[in-house]
């Protein structure tokens, strides 16, 4: 009997977590899932991307985050199942079915993250190979062309990738071939897809998923990722738990990033949030709300997110490393035989190693220098930064500024300053629709009611200034100019850079 068929043998797994201490996960067969290719890979992918090059403590992995999210789900449901106001809403088996489904989803929800995932996702969102005159074959940027329904470059993100990994069309054996390229002495026997599919009926029965109307587990998990799960129809509070501004995934990753980076001001009181979850029944549907006693923790969550964004995720040096990685990846995909699937299904170390080897073999000096800056901790230096404000934007539309445009302007700057092209780097911070972003962020917050003595209100009625904080998120966008440290920062150089940026409508 194959190991991944021994479903139901493991009742409890123990983990020692830096945030939550010694934790027990009561999800049957969790060890079976942990031993798959997909979750093994997450143990070698860092949660906070390239931030560890600036914040040495931020080396926590996607696997640790997945286990932490599962633990928070377990704690949340234990609280709700024993709370007098909510425990009678469902029968015991129905409660267990809901709990196990959320725990299982959170366990596998990050399996689609490629190395330095959000770094790659920025490139796929803001670079179009079809508009690059230097690209001979845009098909080089298509993923999963040989073993699953292909993904266009612009569609590559971790949600779409995990949906592909669970797809009925995926070639599991070919998938294992990609995984085995970075494994050495020990090979797992199964993938998440195999475990879920081959044990579908047994898992549904053991995890009481039939109580909540689930009959195809891989498909239902994929539907949760796309926001179309039938579980959401009857149990809207499940959607809030897995996709909202207070979802369990977010609670763990913000707390873990704050802890790993050492930014203590952003550490969350997670228990104060989940222990103030409430469930409201309306029109035979169950939605999530927050007890007013949890409002201070929610406010802290919003400010923590702001602190981490400004101090960690968009740190100038971190962004320099990310831009270097993006440029090297684009150039190698365009000019060498580097397989995008080899990157997406790899791990952090091997992704960089693979890219560096290809850059040396193909004598791609540009990519080689960019990657060497990352590996030698020698990033570009922040030369100038221009903050976009909504009231100052006239002809500039940050959401339409692409990496294609930035590369063209970099070439012009390098020519005028008489430096190498790889000595200058441009980065646009937050290129989305700023006004839409502000409205969307606040709109999602208003969807979750605050309950005070059976009276419903919204978060801004308790703290009106939150509207201004959320609205100010739309003012984060900026244009950053990075240079090699040898380029002198003189008034003449600054004036020339500003002139070229204005001519290309990158700054007002």
Reconstruct the topology from this structure.
Blueprint: E1 13-17, E2 21-25, H1 30-34, H2 37-42, H3 62-82, H4 92-108, H5 117-126, H6 158-165, H7 172-180, H8 192-198, H9 200-206, H10 217-226, H11 231-234, H12 236-242, H13 248-261, H14 270-274, E3 277-282, E4 285-291, H15 295-313, H16 316-335, H17 340-344, H18 348-361, H19 365-375, E5 381-387, H20 403-417, E6 424-429, H21 434-446, E7 450-452, E8 455-457, H22 459-462, H23 465-472, E9 478-483, H24 491-503
Parallel strand pairs: 4-7
Antiparallel strand pairs: 1-2, 3-4, 5-9, 6-9, 7-8
Helix pairs in contact: 3-4, 3-13, 5-16, 6-10, 13-15, 16-19, 18-19, 20-24, 21-23
Structure description:
By secondary structure, the protein is of the alpha+beta class. It has helices spanning 30-34, 37-42, 62-82, 92-108, 117-126, 158-165, 172-180, 192-198, 200-206, 217-226, 231-234, 236-242, 248-261, 270-274, 295-313, 316-335, 340-344, 348-361, 365-375, 403-417, 434-446, 459-462, 465-472, 491-503, and strands spanning 13-17, 21-25, 277-282, 285-291, 381-387, 424-429, 450-452, 455-457, 478-483. The longest helix has 21 residues, at 62-82. The N and C termini lie far apart (67 Å).
In short:
By secondary structure, this protein is α+β, with helices and mostly antiparallel strands. 50% of the residues lie in helices and 9% in strands.
Question: How many helices in DSSP terms?
Answer: 24
Categorize the overall geometry. globular
Q: Tell me the Rg in angstroms.
A: 24 Å
Strand content: 5-15%
Secondary structure class reads alpha+beta
Mean pLDDT: 87
Number of strands: 9
How would a textbook summarize the main sheet?
Answer: 4 strands, mixed
**Distance between the terminal alpha carbons, to the nearest Å?**
67 Å
Provide the spatial order of strands within the biggest beta sheet.
3-4-7-8
What proportion of the residues is helical, as a percent range? 40-55%
